[in-house]
Design a protein that fits this description.
The complex is a heterodimer of chains A (479) and B (171).
Chain A lengths: L2 H4 L24 H13 L4 H27 L14 H25 L9 H22 L25 H34 L3 H11 L6 H34 L11 H27 L8 H31 L3 H13 L3 H13 L7 H5 L1 H28 L14 H24 L5 H6 L11 H11 L1
Chain B lengths: L1 E3 L2 H13 L5 E4 L7 H5 L6 H27 L14 H27 L23 E5 L8 H10 L4 E2 L5
Antiparallel strand pairs in B: 1-3, 1-4, 2-3
Helix pairs in contact in B: 3-4
Classes of the chains: A mainly alpha (479), B alpha+beta (171).
Chain lengths: 479, 171
Amino acid sequence: MADTNTAETSVHPSEAEGVAREPLVLNNRSMGWITNRICGIVENRQPLIWWVLFVPSVALFGCLLFTLVYLVSTGVGVWGNNQPVAWGWAIVNFVFWIGIGHAGTLISAILFLTRQKWRTSVNRASEAMTLFAVMCAGIFPGFHVGRFWMVWFLAPVPNANGIWQNFKSPLLWDVFAVSTYFTVSVIFWYIGLIPDLATLRDRAKKGLAKFLYGFFALGWRGGNRQWRHYEMAYLLLAALSTPLVLSVHSVVSFDFATSVVPGWHTTIFPPYFVAGAIFGGFAMVLTLMLPVRKLYGLEDLITAKHVDNMAKIILLTGTIVGYAYIMELFISYYGANKFEADAFHLRILSGPYTWAYYCMFFCNVIAPQVFWFKWCRANFWVVFIICNFVNAGMWFERFVIIPTSIARDFLPGQWGYYSPSWVEKLMFLGTFGMFMMLFLLFIRFLPVIAASEVKGVLPENDPHYPDWKKLREKRRSAA
Amino acid sequence: MAEFGSASELYHAAEKVRDAGFRRWDVHTPYPVHGIDHAMGLGKSWLSAVVLVGGICGSSLALFLQFFTQVSLYPTVVQDKPVNLFTIPAFFPVTFELTILLSAFAVVFGLFTFIMLPRWNHPLFNSPLFLKFSDDGFIMVIEARDPKFKKDKTKEFLGELGAGTVEEVAY
């Protein structure tokens, strides 16, 4: 600890001239203010808009339940997929939702390892988003197996003939990847929640709330003899989640890349899918967080700097995705594979789904380019609209990859056209209802920002910060 | 038990308590204070060792599960992949995932064992001053069980360190 003595006199790195950074929490807010503001969301009555969003979300969730019951009781024939397009909207939606989850883990794990302190105000909500998105994703392959009650065949248990699962199949890899991803994300989220649950416990006055927050806070006392193991646990989970999140979408892409279907059989898929997942996920984080920060008065915690950073990540990953699109086209032209060349010719020029390709290309590659301009990153309406373009574009990307490749297979005699039935459409809408419903309940019952982590990034809370007295006075007078 | 006004004061107080040779004491803060492990004389957390064991268990379990079922118990020849030791590339993804899964379980169970939670009831919770730790308080607690603890002297000592409030909590 050589810096212990020198830090008292020298200038703190965050304030040195020329490299001074914008503060992560604006307007000199104190720790007490942070606690009050974040816990207040849970303790006070919800604004009217919460109910305006919650009621339709529950209704849509009801639609999801109805379509699932209808599907199971009637049979998978109620979906529009058939030969040759056996993988329709169900798999498109699965990949779409699982991709959205990736931004949450990226923020919580990768940005933690790279010491990006701005992550603290957005990681909790993004991790929650991850969990809810993975739940929505899990519905689709589960019911896509046809006989939902046979879904236990996916678990590593031998069937009645003593035959085990085929561990050489990417589909089984997917089962392991997605279920591990969900479990580890729950663990990460819950470990992060414990200190904030303790805050809610200590503020709750009576009754069920005090009991439940107390129960889940596990008696957390915030002693440093706990914190030091806790910090190590958090670091380890971040280190485990980082390769995990990269592996999950890689494994999802193996479902396609290891097959021989032209348009799927490419080695660029794993990095391309991972970049796309982070891209789409960040768009969803911003779509959710921009209204939340406005509605609940969190502008001092989720600042313009945060939005700016996330917009830059969207720009970067969107450009990587654009590179992958163009590289796919180039390889199909440059490679000697006739079928591959034909698949892409059909995809962009003469096939039945070219409209989807251009929707995708516009939403994912062209639209985010406006984020090169600072003005666009600072105008939250622009950010919100572009993010929704990206949300739509990423869905189209999966649609372009999945049905268009199998609608034009090797034999022209097998060719077909796929369009979804009303059941698929309603189910997809229903998962949005479920996602929104869960997210609104999360806002209602749990701290939407990791208060304990935000307190840790206030400059005067670093014991080596030289001018903490002056800063504390400033905060007191601001309050 | 003593309350301090800031992280910096707590940090320097912790250094002095450490040098005074106390053993059973702790600081309770709303967030992990940077560098205070050093000020308290605590070393590295060895939770990582537990997790390493968890990870090794995970990969061995996965390799055993796959080789045993696919190669020795009931070899199924599909996708023209071999059913011998050379199947290993196809077994990588599941091995990786199970390694991560069991490591994550080791993190959770190791953590709860190390920090001795859940423990829902604790004498400190009876003090309203203590509960400030989850909001904005910097609390230092010296337990009466500490061999160096002497009721009045320790109280005085905490006052000298610059604590705002010093109070006793019945144990």
